[in-house]
Amino acid sequence: MNNVVSARRIRGIGEYYFSKKLQQIDAIRKQGMEVLNLGIGSPDLPPHPSVIAEFNSAILENGAHQYQSYKGLPELRSAIANWYQRFFDCQLDPDREVLPLIGSKEGITHICMSLLDDGDSVLIPNPGYPAYETASKMAGADIIHYDLKEENQYQPDFDVLEEMDLTSVKIMWVNYPHMPTGSSGSHELFDKLIRFTRKNNIVLINDNPYAFILTDRPMSILSACSPDDHVLELNSLSKSHNMAGWRVGMLVGNQGLLETVLTFKSQVDSGQFKPMLKAAIKALTLDESWFGALNEVYLSRKHMVYKILDNLNCSYCTNSSGMFVWGKIPDTEVDAEHFSDMLLEEHKIFVPPGSIFGSNGKRYIRFSLCSPESVWNETLNRLNETR
Ligand SMILES: Cc1ncc(COP(=O)(O)O)c(C=O)c1O
């Protein structure tokens, strides 16, 4: 019998929703039925061929297999700084304001573990990416959700925020372009966030992995603040360069905060694989045409999702950004979990309920754009056959 008691920090943190759901999907597949998984945001398209070529040649170089620095290669930090200059109009010091990461998800945990103590509180968007909450809880902090509502275009209500007791709040997480709703950031919003967090002595962190996906133009919160502001931004090659499995991300911004995060990170990992870092440098040199081609594919898929949502009598907003479409279920349905279960049971189609991103998602479902056209056609066929 297993009598090992788990640590307090992970008690109450359930298994990640997708890992549980994938087991259920696997069980259905084992019964011989094909499930269309329209839920997971893992790009199905490949990275640029030059990125793969760079990886293949770098693997043969001397020293390719040795440990690397915790801060990645200096050339990678410079490539990140150049990328921020080119696309976001932000000036970054590659040695002091750039920290490469093993994906932005690891960065979320590192930030929480290095900045939060028991008794601190964290402002977390509802709905929002679940890792902000779990990482904050693992670090011992208390969660304060702030609402993002459709009627406010999923932007925070600053009057409500100002009314809150903020004395113990140390971090505010924001994520624009927002997952799961697709709401975009703006200079006005970033200015308000910076003023609010500056006034209340809160560290502001924008998680920005969807900066290039179906946006008018990429934006960084760092372009709206000064280097002394306690502002950080996470970014990632997972979605922008179809490199989710490679695990390359970055934390950029305030030098002092970055050093604190590095203190923790350097105790956890031993750097990344050098050929991968060199391939990431290559990816960061790609120009607008790469993003243009990528977005053409995503846009055409998005139109297929609109047809599916119409078929399901769901409503949706057509000016969203990012890799997902956020659909509102009909008023006649009980809630999104029932709706999602019905799609899986009756049609063998998996679309996650918005409730996994917070209580404000309970009347929504989230489609990922990471499936080829054939899957969208098959989805429509299945819905039409049974309706
Ligand atoms: C909002 C958000 N932040 C961070 C991540 C993690 O991305 P990465 O692959 O860089 O760890 C995801 C992944 O789906 C995400 O949706």
UniProtKB/TrEMBL annotation:
SUPFAM superfamilies membership: PLP-dependent transferases (SSF53383)
EC number from the UniProt entry: 2.6.1.-
Domain Aminotransferase class I/classII large: 34-373
Keyword Ligase part of the UniProt annotation: no
Classification via PANTHER family: AMINO ACID AMINOTRANSFERASE (PTHR42832), L-GLUTAMINE--4-(METHYLSULFANYL)-2-OXOBUTANOATE AMINOTRANSFERASE (PTHR42832:SF3)
Family the entry assigns: Belongs to the class-I pyridoxal-phosphate-dependent aminotransferase family.
Protein name: Aminotransferase
Lineage: Bacteria, Pseudomonadati, Bacteroidota, Cytophagia, Cytophagales
